[in-house]
Write a structure and sequence with these properties.
Layout (H helix, E strand, L loop, with lengths): L11 H4 L2 E2 L34 E5 L1 H7 L1 H13 L1 H24 L5 H54 L2 E6 L19 H12 L46
Parallel strand pairs: 2-3
Antiparallel strand pairs: 1-3
Length: about 250
């Protein structure tokens, strides 16, 4: 069992692969609402330069995690979930100890005792798997809530920055090709850092203190994956002959 339950979900699953800012005529573009949003998000502000022709990229996933607010809130969530992680580890250790007992003492146990132990392992294994799934769902929901809240405040900044700087389209590079739409893009067209800087300036949330652990955040440039404990299946008991029994003649 891995020591950490929580690794944060790809935000692209929340916001879609592309944030298109191209306009038809002078109509401002509106960013799509995330699937998990309870209410529709506010319309994006009018773009100051609707005729922009530049194409830019942004790693939305990276931007959300890189904000001071994102670092603070995801780290707080990681600490909040530590008791559940410890609980799951204890349950997993209990199952593993019972498996070891079965493997080392199985031949010495009576059929009834061995059957009881196998049933105990199976029941605890099922309970562990249900608990892991419940914990995973709860963590994902809380992760999505944080990401959605930050995204809703970041979206108008993205639209304004694109209009002010002559961008007609912004592509999301959170998922590398071929899973994402961008085959290749140079750093000169990436606006992730300016958007993060603008968000930090507006949010007023201070940067994490030097040396602050960041186990719950996604480092810049690293992939995000949802990683949860994968409990092993209970060992299948070996069928053994009763000790001292002689085959019938």
């Amino acid at each position: 069992m891995t020591s950490k339950l929580l690794r944060f979900l790809p935000v692209t699953a929340l916001v879609g692969p592309i944030l298109a800012l191209a306009q038809a005529g002078n109509a401002p573009a509106a960013l799509p609402a995330a699937p998990s949003a309870a209410a529709s998000s506010a319309a994006a502000p009018a773009v100051t330069n609707p005729t922009g022709t530049k194409l830019g990229t942004i790693n939305i996933e990276q931007a959300i995690f890189a904000t001071n607010e994102g670092q603070r809130d995801f780290e707080a969530l990681s600490k909040k979930l530590e008791p559940k992680q410890n609980e799951l580890k204890g349950m997993n250790d209990e199952v593993e100890n019972l498996k070891k007992q079965l493997n080392t003492q199985g031949e010495k146990l009576s059929d009834d005792a061995r059957g009881t132990l196998v049933k105990q392992i199976e029941d605890k294994q099922k309970k562990l798997e249900r608990s892991v799934q419940d914990a995973r769902d709860d963590a994902q929901n809380q992760q999505n809530e944080i990401a959605q809240r930050i995204l809703q405040k970041m979206a108008p900044m993205l639209v304004k920055y694109a209009g002010d700087n002559g961008f007609g389209v912004i592509m999301d590079t959170s998922n590398p090709w071929p899973n994402g739409p961008v085959l290749w893009a140079g750093p000169s067209v990436d606006i992730t850092k300016p958007i993060v800087d603008a968000y930090n300036a507006q949010s007023g949330v201070p940067a994490p203190a030097p040396g602050t652990p960041r186990s719950g955040t996604k480092p810049i440039g690293s992939p995000t994956k949802s990683i949860t404990p994968s409990p092993t299946k209970p060992a299948t008991p070996q069928t053994t002959k009763p000790q001292g029994a002689a085959p019938p003649k």
